[in-house]
Amino acid sequence: ADVLAYVERENDARDLLQSVLKTDPNNIQAHETMGFLEFKGGNREGARKWYEEAVKLGSENYLAHYNYATFSLGQGNGEKNGEIEGNLRAAIRLNPRFSQAYDELTSVLISWDRLADAVTVLQALIKATSRPSEASRAQQRIAQIRQMQASRAEAKDRKSVV
Prior knowledge:
The chain has helices at residues 2-6, 10-23, 28-40, 44-56, 62-72, 81-94, 99-111, 115-128, 132-161. By secondary structure, it is an all-alpha fold.
């Protein structure tokens, strides 16, 4: 089914996956492939649900964790924050060279005003990457975060003086 999905035989892949899931409803790879098919078809919410099931069943696929986290972003419920962070960290643990997971986690942490944690994630990326361009981009982001931290500290100092 996975091969059929990747060679754009979506209907055949879905039919085979339905059969697999009838026999084994806890088949992690079938859930992951269904997530891929839904995403490929433009159904992000459907993809999120399939990836969520794969993750809950114990997926060790970094993309399942990454996609579940990114598709869960912006759903407007703060209870998912821990899951989002946990799944992005799982994606990094499962594939330490997958820079998109570091980037997404950094952006999420910045949006949650966890700047020091974001710097730590970028420092981990610098250690994990073999690409100078990724390391350079991470260094630039660290410099931007440090600038934000300094600006905030300065603004706070001004307020306390007034």
